[in-house]
């Protein structure tokens, strides 16, 4: 068994090849099914009435007008849930399924109408009368943190069922979670410093903007609940629905078709409880399909303010770093505590510090809830930390690559006390980015180059199961709970199984998740699927192969070490048998199947999963930019990233992942910002004024270098990818802009913000003044 | 955010379209590409029970050269005009200006007439056409009148069009030798934050005519007086005068603050783009005199 897992001298049939995406044809032809394409019999259409106030008591809700409307079957309000404990939240159980007595953000669901058509449901919303008593709100971080601030939540803290954060502290005011760590003597490190960089930074609220909005169909049949949903973590949704509605785990069935993107917006539980609740009342399946403006208030990325100080010696040795940050998680915690912890982990950056002190606070405000978004935490902190490293180098007259080479952690080095040591060659990665950018060549005025390196605690909780079935016709199907959301998961899982079984990928099918049949997988996120779920698939496929080999040994009468597995057949002793023939021999008919199971857990599976995180995802990239000092427009001329993936199961998909992350990185760096009014109303909830990158914004040159050191804990030495470039890009762009003369401390780098920075203190730089800086 | 129900009418002549609109009164509105109107209706900013579709009205179609000008049907899409050899020949800068409008999806259905009649303050064609002294033909199938573009706009989303009156065509004078035109713009989101168009005419290396339009920063395009300072300037002095005009123009406009930028920022942009537009127009004009 162990020997087979090492794949002795066998040429590759699938792994390492640029296999086309298995879903591409169906998606391009419009054949691929998404939740919104499904239509269970008697399905009703839901419409959600949402709060207009950021903080208010609900004095009364009159639904009689809506209920009397022709075609309306049911109207749900908080009063319908008195027989349940209607609070959920995987981190903190703080969120009611629907507003109960109080609303905490503009857009919070207050009532749901289920009707025979969407038009009827939408129209009936205007027949619902709500009377509010408006309360003072804490719609901004500053207001939420001020002494005597209005409290967003008042009751005791209740841990959610999947927070994974150890013992949760009590809430203090609006701070719902604190994370921090420190080591070394910070005062001594700063006392010794020749240079201290100290500044305050602002990161905006950003929307994940997947093409498909949150869409859920639920059917509460009394004893059983079926949910079709655009969700990334079907098994966690199942668990929360089971607890909320007091139905055994096995009687909750979550089915996940294709997703039109997620980027974290569909992680954990989103619209599912509300949809199940209205179906429970209506007694029929109900669909809730968000509009874009509704999805924008369903989840978002945390906005943040941060103060950071970095100390260095005169020789450029990085000595100490002190970081304090406040992340705005909105009215409900969602994944805020985990985002806060990951931001804390990313704060020191991958350097050999003498002393570090990190304090991270997750803060409730009266705005829409914030949760996961690709490379969370790392994206928040890397641009800050890396801009301070650049500033140290600048003040000391050192090259910005050299200072990193001199201070970066080596393989095995301590990233954070108690965590897995570094599992990558960061200096090698940085050198590759620098080379791709032509680092030391001189650049004209108003141009700059920057690079950034960081680490992201990746892999989430390493629990995944998989089943591989080899049918009587020699075809393979893989059952694995990874959600295909455009990243190519089904393609890669198929490649892994194909490789182990020595088959071409075209012989393998991977379908969507149905929790009734698909084995457990914790989640699709944190760059974990190829590494963790992929490992389970590898093991499951190896079990099938083992059974084939046992059958071949018996049939061919040849010892196993003389058998050769290749191209869907096993040969030895001058004879060869196809898998079909082996199965037929084994069961005595043209039928039956071989089934293998694989599982990965913190203690089971491979030892690589024992210490957290599963792996450190390397976030490294560089950019060259040009700034027009008269308008503040920043143009990204070229970017380069390094995908340090251990082993690229599918190099094409690795590149596509980096390209997508680069585009989102451009958005986070240059354009994207959710603007809330003073009263917590989202002001830019359409693409006309919420600017995302488009093809026009593609840099003229993009390069992605794949590094394969086979140092990952996943199958074939793989580790995840796809998030790192997003964290690295804003940092690289901020640093490149600083190199061009403009040091920014607030994102996004909108033309006006950059222009303000330039013109607040200085004249437009003259041709000879590359030295002149706008600090 | 959802389109309310409505009825669509498809008249096949200008006369029928106008009569239909008069009959429908306030319940009816013309529609062409719908890129503005349907969006406004989705956002709940406008509501009409009847849409009178102009796409089958033949009078609104086509591009024709007429002696020293080009006549452009109001129902032509940006995309159709971008590729028109007649326009490229007569007003070389115009296709370049059109190619920067919105994105290819909007340009493929959005029309020049829809752009002007909607009178969104953030408009490239409104600015450009004012600078090149285009004239609009407004009509109802039986009568018609001609209005210079810079007198068409009364303010943001307001024009001189009477109910039932339609924009039929846009007449753009061909650019004579010795005249240079330039259009500059910058966008932050989808629509331009600032647009500046300039037209200058040189005679023996001296500026004899100059016209400047600043768009997208106020309710309607603005024609700064300061441009007159350029008249009489010659090759040796115009670069300095351009800077003076730019500064004076910026000081004279009072930009409206909105999601595209603060008033202060837009004022600074006006100065930058007036300078760049005039420099470019002068370069174009010089190119022809050589
Ligand atoms: C995403 C986006 C980006 C954009 N970016 C830009 C940009 O960068 N620069 C720019 O200048 N513009 C921009 N626009 C505006 C764009 O140019 C216009 O939307 C388009 O040209 C309008 O044409 P339409 O045929 O679709 O108008 P419609 O929506 O059909 O009509 C608009 C209005 O004009 C009226 N109307 C239409 N035709 C006539 C007529 N012949 N006579 C009388 N009334 C009429 C209609 O009743 C309606 O009120 C953008 C628009 C969008 C949606």
Would you kindly provide a written description of the structure presented here, covering whatever features stand out?
The complex is a heterodimer of chains A (775) and B (290). With 775 residues, chain A is α+β, with helices and mostly antiparallel strands. Chain A has 19 helices and 29 strands. Among the domains of chain A are: 151 residues, Aldehyde Oxidoreductase, domain 4, CATH 3.30.365.10; 205 residues, 2-Layer Sandwich (Aldehyde Oxidoreductase, domain 4), CATH 3.30.365.10. Chain A has an eight-stranded mixed sheet with strand order 3-7-1-14-11-12-13-22. A five-stranded mixed sheet of chain A has the order 9-17-16-15-10. In chain A, a hairpin with a 4-residue loop joins strand 11 and strand 12. In chain A, helix 15 crosses helix 16. Chain A starts with a helix and ends in a 14-residue tail after the last helix. The relative contact order of chain A is 0.12. Chain B is of the alpha+beta class. Chain B folds into three domains: 47 residues, 2-Layer Sandwich (Uridine Diphospho-n-acetylenolpyruvylglucosamine Reductase, domain 2); 116 residues, Uridine Diphospho-n-acetylenolpyruvylglucosamine Reductase, domain 3, CATH 3.30.465; 108 residues, Enolase-like, domain 1, CATH 3.30.390. In chain B, helix 9 packs antiparallel against helix 10. At the A-B interface, helix 19 of A face helix 10 of B. The site of flavin-adenine dinucleotide has 34 residues of chain B, from strand 2, helix 2, helix 6, helix 7 and helix 8.
